[in-house]
Structures are given as structure tokens and as C-alpha cells.
Structure prediction request, 258 residues.
Amino acid sequence: MSGAMGKPTRLTGTPEWVFRWKPRKSPLVPKLLALLLVGLGFAFLLSLRIKVITPARSTSQAASVMILRNDAQGRAFTLKADEGGPFPSRFELSQWQGMAELEAVAWEAVKPQPKPYAPAMQELPDATLLRPLELAVSGKSFFPPRLLAEEPPPVTGPQRLHPTLFPLSGITRENLPTDLPPYEEMTEAGDWRFLLQLNAAGVVKECISLESTGKEAPAALVRWLRRVPFKSSPGQAARWLALELKFTNSLADGTEPR
Prediction:
């Protein structure tokens, strides 16, 4: 069966086969030539010898140190080392000898020059405008007229204490209220400092005394401060400020003294 499949038979009366089913005979010379060239190349590569040499260090790890004194010889060696070394020396403008002269010239150029003072000459007043000098008569005392100082009229009428506010922190003098409620108590005179908490409408919610001695503020002062109308601040829910309260004497309102 294998022999029948290896060599097909052509039927009688059929045309020639399209393909050649028998293998073509190739010449042997090209094959031998290619094998010879590959062998020669391989033999040439085997004959090569590559010599690997370890490179020597280009820089030396040793160094020398020279200690120079601060004298003429040492400065000369230092200058020579700076000029002949691998790093060029930098020019220092401050060490230049002509720097002081250059600064003096520049300062004279920009220094403001004051104008020379030239007094203006004026004519003397006429002799007729001068008042005659009054001389004292011999044997008679002469004194200049006495000018009496004007004294303020004395304050008459009953007086009372008037409270005045001064800003310390959190408020300016322009924002202080000008229309203050009347204060009827006259026994709490002196200077007081308070820490106030205001709401958005300007009403006093908290009143704390800031006296260093720990003395509590009188209840009348606290009640009076709670009635002081401050400016409203719609954008702030609560704000703190510090004030100083002083009392000054003023005439009492009305005819009855208080």
C-alpha cells in the first residue's frame, strides 16, 4: 500500500501532471564550498587572542601639605599658589587699593550739595516810625503798667459727677456712644475698667470688672453700663471690648443739688 501511494500511476488518456513529483538533483559543489567557508571563518576566530590590560590609576592618592607663616615669605608663596594652581584666584573688589578712592569720588558725585546761604538785605525802617524812648525823671520812681491776669469766674451752683467712657480695646473713640443715660448714684467716684460683651444689637450681656485689686464693681455701675446703648453689628453674634469709666465734676441739671 505504501508503494502504491509513493508512486502514483497516471491513467490512460490523461494529460501530463502539473507538478513534478520526483525530487530534483542538486549539485554537490556549492554545498562543499559553503561548508569550507564556514570552517575557515570559525578557524580564524579561534586563532584570535584578545589581551585585556587593567588600566592604571590616573590620579594619585597622596598629597603634600605646606604650612605657611603670616609673613612676607608666606604671603608670597600664597600668591604664587593662587596664581599657579588649578583654580584661578577670584578678584576681590573690596581688596583693591583704588576702591577707597573710587568710593570717595562716587560719594562726592551723589552727595547733596546745600545751597549757599545768601541773606537778603532789607531797608531799615524810617526813623519817624520809631517810638521815643521814655526816660525816668530824676528822683521819681517809674514802673511799667501792671497787667492783671484774667481769672475765670468761679463756678457757682450745685455740681454733680458725670461718667465718661474711654476706649481700651475692641472699640475706637468714634464708635463710643455719645448719648449716655443719666447716672444718679454719687458714691462710686473714681476710675474703673470693665470688660463688656455685646450682642448684635449693641446690648450689654456681660460686665466684668478688670480691677487688679480684685475689688468688685458697685452694682449701680454695672446697672448703668447695661443701659448704655452701643452701635449694633448685624454681622457679629457677640463681641468683647474693654472700657475705662471715669467721673468728672459738672454742674447739676436743674435747681436741686444732688
